[in-house]
Amino acid sequence: MLEVDRLCVEINGALLLEDVSFQLARSEMLCVVGESGAGKSTLMKALQGLVPARCQRFHFEPANIDASEAMPQMIGLPETRWVMQDPLAALNPRLSLGRSIAESLHGRGYTKAKLRKAVEKALEEVELDPAFYDRLPGQVSLGQAQRACLARALVAQPQLIIFDEPLSALDAIVQKKVAQRMDALRRETQTAYLVVTHDMGFAAVYADQVLVLQKGRVADYQPRTTFFDSPASPYSASLIEAARSLGALEGTL
Ligand SMILES: Nc1ncnc2c1ncn2[C@@H]1O[C@H](COP(=O)(O)OP(=O)(O)OP(=O)(O)O)[C@@H](O)[C@H]1O
């Protein structure tokens, strides 16, 4: 449903991304990993249309975008929702969780009652009690706030959700809970996920495919098991080794 062929981002003469290609099918999860400065955030920004990007081919089925020549203009992705790293920065502190989630359905012409019901169902899907509807972000834990962000993305029933380090603000136990819920919902709703993460343990458990960025280029791009069994570049082998030596892959493969 999403196909990106040779994406490049150049800012002030510096090539921040060069020939980055990947594909994502319905309900599939692609994890993008790489060290700090590799270009992960730049990829996010290119897809959000926040930096100028061009590519040879860009196909996004849900929005009928099919550009087969270089695209000097901003890309941007309709039919897509985003879940960012810091849930408290992503939520308006003056809006209750319920109202924040309801904003995702703005413009759909729902009656008040239907809107309330949809939001309560979304809260339930991320295992938050309906009583959380009226809580402000400052009145919930980080894990609960991140789950509200997930509910806000899911309630719109997008075809694709892009996550930027979705678990990094959470402690290990909450990380596991949110990760499991994310994965289960992806399967139930057939939503595709593109997840930028430093967490190789997460990729080792949940990714269908892993894409490694190194200095703005693709250093590896393979299905999960092949990637962890036989990484295609010394750089991805070193990332796996580093994660293994930190115990991040224990019990995952
Ligand atoms: N607007 C910009 N102008 C020039 N260089 C930039 C700009 N934005 C980012 N860069 C550079 O591009 C490279 C990739 O940055 P990016 O933020 O995409 O890395 P990252 O993989 O997301 O890193 P991290 O994991 O630390 O967030 C870095 O060397 C960064 O300094």
Automatic annotation (TrEMBL):
Residues 2-240 form the ABC transporter domain. Pfam families: ABC_tran. SUPFAM superfamilies: P-loop containing nucleoside triphosphate hydrolases. It comes from the Bacteria. One of its GO terms (molecular function) is ATP binding. InterPro entries: AAA+_ATPase, ABC_transp_ATP-bind, ABC_transporter-like_ATP-bd, ABC_transporter-like_CS, P-loop_NTPase. Keywords: ATP-binding, Nucleotide-binding, Transport. SMART domains: AAA (SM00382). PROSITE patterns: ABC_TRANSPORTER_1 (PS00211), ABC_TRANSPORTER_2 (PS50893). Gene3D superfamilies: P-loop containing nucleotide triphosphate hydrolases. This is ABC transporter ATP-binding protein. It comes from Parasulfitobacter algicola.
